[in-house]
Design brief:
Elements: H1 7-28, H2 37-53, E1 77-79, E2 89-90, H3 93-107, E3 114-120, E4 123-130, E5 133-139, E6 145-147, H4 150-153, E7 169-176, H5 179-191, H6 200-208, H7 213-218, E8 222-228, H8 239-249, E9 257-260, H9 263-276, E10 284-291, H10 294-300, E11 310-314, E12 319-331, E13 337-348, E14 351-357, H11 361-367, E15 370-371, E16 374-378, E17 386-390, E18 400-401, E19 415-417, E20 424-426, H12 435-443, H13 455-463, H14 478-482, H15 489-502, H16 507-513, H17 521-531, H18 534-538, H19 542-546, H20 553-564, H21 566-577, E21 596-600, H22 608-617, E22 621-623, E23 632-635, H23 642-649, E24 652-654, H24 656-663
Parallel strand pairs: 2-11, 21-22, 21-23, 23-24
Antiparallel strand pairs: 1-6, 3-9, 3-10, 4-5, 4-7, 7-8, 10-11, 12-13, 12-16, 13-14, 15-18, 16-17, 19-20
Helix pairs in contact: 1-2, 12-13, 16-17
Length: 664
């Protein structure tokens, strides 16, 4: 029986949503906030509290969904009723003038007005609204079929979830990353040993296809819209009117545009922006010139690929030549080797560049980049400079082919490729350059599950020299911890208690924590059930490992190689001396036998994959959709539509604490 929600609660929730949407628009679209961050946060916290207290009021278009919640299973295909065609483009002002003559000839007129807009270097998307509410967001794809990325687009704060008028309409635009955000993402990727994105467009595309909506929200995508589909339905006759109309509805529309009465006026505006574009906080690679009149656009129609009434006038790339004097190799926290070009200093776009990314070894090989080459360097705004390729005609014959290092420049361990990856890695699991990444795996939920040892603390402990290998976690001292910034006595005691508790983790957790290449939590479970102790596993042969169903040759070789390393045996000895259990700790494997679970929303204590593996390890099953056969729906923060379906079917719902109580 559903409870009655007080009318004042409903009214307060609606008011908070209206106010937050308004302030969101002023902050992210107009860049003119009228309240402080603290006031905004207070309203958001109140709305989150009310929606949690009254889940019946949940709305996918609530501002609380901006932070992301669901981990998506994948992206379904979406057919575009009106094809999303691409623009024809040119670098030549003469071809733009020919475009103008062609337009006038086809229309049999002497004068045509054009709207000139910045061409944003991002990812084209389609946004659909029903009754003023956002219901569908899709990528362009091949123009006819795209992907449904609605939940990810809800996190983009410049995309209104509720329009200012209750209209049903479709608009199209571009999702992009500010250069500042792009640089932050690449810095973080390099810290994690991942290759940096080549440009903001690639980063935006990669972000929009993330399955974790929280990760999408953290990357702070932005958007501009520029196309109103079926404008005649709203009495709109020109592109200029359409842009103004979309602004009135609450969309972010780029203000750097011009209504030009002649093509020469349009070209002058383009020339102005060729230099001014570098003052923008985002990338633009040209201008789009469109016939202003929708009646003219309709008469002009389309070619097979492009509209006849628009053309993209692309800016020339900003490139300079310099000498590649050397190539150094950096090793990231996951062991990825990234080649970096050492250059003769060269001035480009207001800064002096001495180093540039070469992405990966294949990039060097494919472009035949050699040490000593004169190379072309490209940089747009604040984006990381990159080497485009060598100037072959300037070679002297003294250039040297770069050889991929066979040994890690940090530890001297073997270097090689893993599976189908492009990147080369240091294969030594104990490489000092990989220590922070190894510790993150060691203390994770799937590993030793040491609560309180987060990424920031790991950084500090390694940088201060308090941890030199993963076993050192068990030798941390209270006074050392208290001396750290932001670490008080209570926090230190809680951490030491969590470390002590972790000594009795099950063997499969310990095997997972070691970070053996190709050994995840499922494989670790198989190994623990077969060998019963870490000492037994350490003495296993490739032949004995291959006897286990589910263990392949690559995994078997990796395990044997890992335990043959002197550093591994040193770590195992240190773990043993610290009192860490190296054998099976009894755990009932049938606790959840016969029970089927589905998960919705964001969990505080588990990543989605971690809780799935835990349920499976305890004998339960995990499904993707709610049905009558489901025993429990585990409900996290900001749950999705699965919650409504569970209520309708009478499926039992439990929160994270209740799940933990169930397994204990």
């Amino acid at each position: 029986m559903s409870r009655e929600i007080p009318e004042e609660v409903k009214e307060r929730v609606e008011k908070l949503r209206r106010d937050l949407n308004y302030h969101n628009y002023r902050y992210y679209v107009l860049n003119m906030p009228v309240i402080t961050d603290a006031e905004y946060d207070a309203m958001m916290e109140e709305l989150i509290r009310l929606e949690k207290e009254y889940p019946e009021l949940d709305d996918p278009n609530s501002p609380t969904h901006r932070v992301g919640a669901e981990v998506l299973e994948g992206f379904e295909k979406v057919v575009h009723p009106v094809e999303m065609k691409s623009l024809s483009n040119t670098y030549s002002p003469e071809e733009v003038r020919q475009f103008d003559e062609r337009i006038k000839g086809l229309l049999a007129v002497n004068d045509v007005d054009y709207v000139v807009e910045l061409k944003i270097d991002g990812l084209a998307v389609r946004l659909v609204y029903e009754g003023g509410r956002f219901v569908l967001g899709a990528t362009r794809g091949d123009g006819k079929i795209g992907e449904n990325v609605t939940e990810n687009l809800r996190t983009v704060r410049t995309i209104p979830l509720v329009l200012r008028k209750d209209l049903s309409l479709e608009v199209r635009g571009e999702v992009y990353l500010l250069r500042e955000q792009f640089n932050e993402i690449n810095i973080q990727r390099q810290r994690e040993g991942l290759p940096p994105f080549a440009n903001p467009r690639n980063a935006a595309a990669g972000t929009l296809r993330q399955l974790d909506t929280k990760e999408v929200a953290r990357r702070h995508l932005s958007s501009f819209v520029y196309t109103l589909v079926s404008p005649e339905s709203y009495g709109i006759n020109t592109q200029q009117e359409a842009l103004e109309f979309m602004e009135e509805l609450g969309f972010a529309v780029n203000k750097n545009r011009k209504l030009a009465s002649t093509i020469e006026e349009a070209l002058t505006f383009c020339d102005e922006w060729e230099e001014k574009r570098f003052d923008l906080p985002y990338d633009t690679d040209g201008m789009v010139i469109k016939v202003n009149s929708f009646d003219y656009q309709k008469r002009l129609g389309f070619t097979a690929k492009s509209p006849r009434w628009a053309i993209a006038y692309k800016f020339p790339a900003v490139q300079v030549k310099t000498k590649l004097v050397g190539i150094t190799v950096q090793v990231g926290r996951t062991g990825v080797l990234t080649p970096v070009a050492e250059l003769e200093p060269v001035h480009i776009l207001g800064s002096t560049v001495k180093r540039a990314t070469l992405h990966n070894m294949d990039y060097i090989r494919e472009r035949d980049i050699r040490i000593g080459d004169t190379v072309l360097l490209e940089k747009a705004g604040e984006v990381i400079p990159k080497v485009i390729g060598p100037v072959i005609e300037e070679r002297t014959g003294e250039e040297q082919v770069f050889e991929i290092p066979k040994k890690c420049p940090v530890c001297g361990g073997d270097v090689g490729k893993v599976a189908d990856e492009v990147a080369y890695r240091c294969l030594n699991p104990h490489c000092p350059a990989k220590l922070k990444g190894a510790l993150k795996t060691f203390v994770s939920k799937a590993g030793m599950n040491i609560e309180g040892m987060g990424e920031r603390l790991i950084e500090v402990l390694v940088d201060k020299g308090l941890i030199k290998d993963i076993a050192d976690v068990y030798y941390l001292k209270r006074d050392e911890l208290i001396s750290l910034e932001r670490m008080g006595a209570k926090s230190a005691d809680n951490l030491l208690r969590a470390i002590e508790e972790s000594k009795r983790r099950s063997l499969d957790h310990l095997i997972t924590a070691l970070g053996i290449p190709f050994v995840g939590s499922q494989t670790a479970l198989l190994l623990s059930q077969h060998f019963h102790s870490l000492e037994n596993l350490a003495s296993a042969t490739i032949e004995s490992l291959l006897q286990i169903e589910g263990i392949g040759e690559q995994t078997a070789e990796s395990i044997v190689k890992y335990f043959s390393l002197p550093k591994t045996m040193e770590i195992i000895e240190k773990l043993k001396k610290a009192g860490v259990s190296l054998g099976i700790v009894e755990e009932r494997k049938d606790k959840l036998k016969g029970l089927r679970f589905v998960i919705t929303g964001s969990l505080k204590g588990y990543k989605r994959q971690e809780i799935k593996e835990l349920i499976t390890r305890l004998g339960g099953e995990v499904g993707n959709s709610v049905s009558k056969n489901v025993d429990y729906l585990i409900v996290g923060e900001s749950p999705g539509s699965k919650l409504d379906k569970a209520k309708a079917l009478g499926v039992k719902m439990i929160n994270e604490d209740e799940f933990n109580a169930l397994i204990e």
